[in-house]
Amino acid sequence: MNVLVLGGTEFLGRHLVELLLDTGHKVTLFNRGKTNPTLFDGDVEKVIGDRDGDLNLLRGRHFDACVDPSGYVPRLVGDSARALQGVIEHYTFISSISVYPEFVAGQDETAALSKLKDPTTEDVTDATYGGLKVLCEKAAEDKLPGKVLNVRAGLITGPYDPTDRFTFWPVRSAAGGEFVAPVSAALPVQFIDARDIALWVIACMENRVTGTFNVTGEPTTLGAVLTDCREVAHSNAEPVWMPEDYLLQQDIRPWVDLPLWLPEPARGMLQVDTLAARQHGLKTRAARASIEDILKTSPRTWDELKVGLKRQREAELLKDFRTRK
Fold first, then answer.
1. 131 and 172 co-located in one domain
2. Tell me: the pLDDT tens digits for 194-212?
3. Angle in degrees, 0-180, between the axes of helices 287-297 and 222-233, rounded to the nearest 10
């Protein structure tokens, strides 16, 4: 296939392009040329432009499929889909499980969706992100009815992750010693390697699968993940499990200071149903495989990570927790 990728040089898009090339497909990138601009030089065609105003650069072109991993604003997703009317047969939009306003463990794609107070906003924040993704899905389907695959991705892990939300745990575990862990070893978590999403999306493109799917991994526990992290890193790291109430009293931010931890009632975000995607061929690798590759490729040390507790704050918490006990 001749595949157009909107973006394609940072994280999920980068893995998509790598695997598209590995499976023999032709790739054209349309992006601003700002992120990893020399990546894939000589392997793909590059069209440099901003989807906000430069979509005319795609006129007169034909593609079999398009993947959009960089759409956050409904107007721009709608404009992109409109520009590709009559040009493509399949459009993959990378959405998010954040489209659900409430998280009940085990919910599937039929759950209620977020609604914005101001549906015209283009301000992407934590409060508007889910609602904007809902409208992005609709914008794509309105312009390309029956040709859209909406991928409601869960927490994405793997090499090149710019957020460090999962990367924190392997990197921190590799540093060794006691470390703060939230709630208990039984805390439910759920995530998926970007390469597993990419492989599934490519198969869906090849087979013209459309519709809306929750796409994330099998539910597991934080305890199991941290055990894998320590064993892969051959580390003596030891989690000190701290109750949720204590962490919140200490102003420790869920998801930011301690990634993979979400307090109730948001905990169901990491326990969504993925049966529909699995019935369409979704397969996910073991966490250990992702952890191994993250530790091999992570460009940042513990002190350089964008999220997670820093050394001094972690030491303060450990000392205070021991004193209280």
1. no
2. 999 999 999 999 999 999 9
3. 50
